Amino acid sequence: MNSSPLLAARALSAGYGDFQALFSVDFDVFAGEVVALIGANGAGKSTMLKSFVGLVPIRAGTVTFDGRDISKMPAHALASQGLALVPEGRRLFRGMTVEDNLRVAADRARRLPAGVPAWTLERLYDLFPILGERRGQAVEKLSGGQQQMVAIGRALITQPKLLLCDEISLGLAPRVIGEIYAMLPVIQQSGTAILLVEQDVTLASRSSNRICCLLEGRIVLSGRSSEISREAIAKAYFGVG
Ligand code: ATP
């Protein structure tokens, strides 16, 4: 693991109007790792992700990505820096085909150094073969799981160094969640780091190298997923002890 983080939040505070949702959060993601961010409803997980990509303004503190201060960078500029969000609710372009959803996103792609393998349409269809089969269909004709695959593909085709996934399992059947989560190691092995916001603590723990727990806008637990006990996670999650 590199000694300097790929993404680093320092003393990050953010909120909405009079409401403060994040309180002086310090948080890192290192190149190539999978980090799971857990916490109860309203803990601030989505706010944190959105503050990284310029969708919620930062009130205090800084966010650096790949050594560059991105605290004030507008959301549309971040894809070309190598930061991609799979938003909660997927937010696909309705009325457009699977392939057009992917192609539109490719226009915002980061320029890759020579020799770095790119996430092409072909490679995405290898990752999720059903998308290749359905490439000509309008996205609203797809199942929820297939739509989630398009949302992930749309983020990957921007060639991210870090993929931010906001509750990608939400509302999906366990079998479909299993199919999607099975692809995360493939994405990780391609060199893309992943930050997962996940409600299912067991899934989060099993799928990540490190886990962080937010409670009412503060990080209350952080460590290697393989070393943190379920009891410690449960206590942090509910703010007990
Ligand atoms: P969930 O799992 O329910 O999505 P979360 O941990 O992602 O929860 P956030 O969505 O980040 O939590 O919300 C953190 C706090 O900010 C909550 O109290 C929420 O009500 C509040 N909040 C979120 N979005 C807004 C908004 N647009 N305007 C006002 N308050 C908001």
Automatic annotation (TrEMBL):
<dbReference type="InterPro" id="IPR003439">
    <property type="entry name" value="ABC_transporter-like_ATP-bd"/>
</dbReference>
<keyword id="KW-0067">ATP-binding</keyword>
<dbReference type="GO" id="GO:0005524">
    <property type="term" value="F:ATP binding"/>
</dbReference>
<protein>
    <submittedName>
        <fullName>ABC transporter ATP-binding protein</fullName>
    </submittedName>
</protein>
<keyword id="KW-0547">Nucleotide-binding</keyword>
<dbReference type="InterPro" id="IPR027417">
    <property type="entry name" value="P-loop_NTPase"/>
</dbReference>
<dbReference type="InterPro" id="IPR017871">
    <property type="entry name" value="ABC_transporter-like_CS"/>
</dbReference>
<dbReference type="InterPro" id="IPR003593">
    <property type="entry name" value="AAA+_ATPase"/>
</dbReference>
<dbReference type="GO" id="GO:0015807">
    <property type="term" value="P:L-amino acid transport"/>
</dbReference>
<dbReference type="GO" id="GO:0015658">
    <property type="term" value="F:branched-chain amino acid transmembrane transporter activity"/>
</dbReference>
<keyword id="KW-0029">Amino-acid transport</keyword>
<keyword id="KW-0813">Transport</keyword>
<dbReference type="GO" id="GO:0016887">
    <property type="term" value="F:ATP hydrolysis activity"/>
</dbReference>
<dbReference type="Pfam" id="PF00005">
    <property type="entry name" value="ABC_tran"/>
</dbReference>
<dbReference type="InterPro" id="IPR052156">
    <property type="entry name" value="BCAA_Transport_ATP-bd_LivF"/>
</dbReference>
<feature type="domain" description="ABC transporter">
    <location>
        <begin position="7"/>
        <end position="241"/>
    </location>
</feature>
<comment type="similarity">
    <text>Belongs to the ABC transporter superfamily.</text>
</comment>
